[in-house]
Design goal:
It contains six helices and no strands. By secondary structure, the protein is mostly helical.
């Protein structure tokens, strides 16, 4: 499950097209540090793979997913502020908000999954 199951999740977290929010490698590092997970600052793909692996090995994926959701909730607030300033950008920014909410729902669903099923 780990290798096959995470490929969709990795894609969701890494691609703005899917997630609606770009998460920088520095933000991934901050999340790892806040959880006490050892992850080197590297390219985003490698960091996500390491974060998922390390958090899984330490039974801390729910905490990881919660931290990413918190970051994405902040991003949605930023998008909403942009919409107030630039209402004509509604089509683009609204799409990012929708995709970011979908990513949050995916992470919340994953955090409720039993890893042993």
């Amino acid at each position: 499950m780990h290798n096959g199951g995470f490929s969709m999740l990795e894609k969701q977290l890494l691609a703005l097209h899917y997630s609606g929010s770009y998460i920088t490698n520095f933000e991934f590092k901050e999340i790892a540090d806040s959880l006490g997970l050892e992850v080197d600052l590297a390219d985003r793909e490698k960091m996500v793979k390491n974060l998922l692996k390390t958090s899984g090995e330490q039974n801390r994926q729910k905490e990881l997913f919660d931290a990413v959701c918190e970051l994405l909730q902040k991003r949605i607030k930023e998008y909403q502020q942009l919409l107030e300033l630039y209402p004509d950008a509604k089509d683009i920014v609204g799409g990012y908000i929708q995709k970011t909410r979908s990513t949050i729902m995916l992470l919340q669903q994953r955090s409720r999954m039993n890893p042993y099923e």
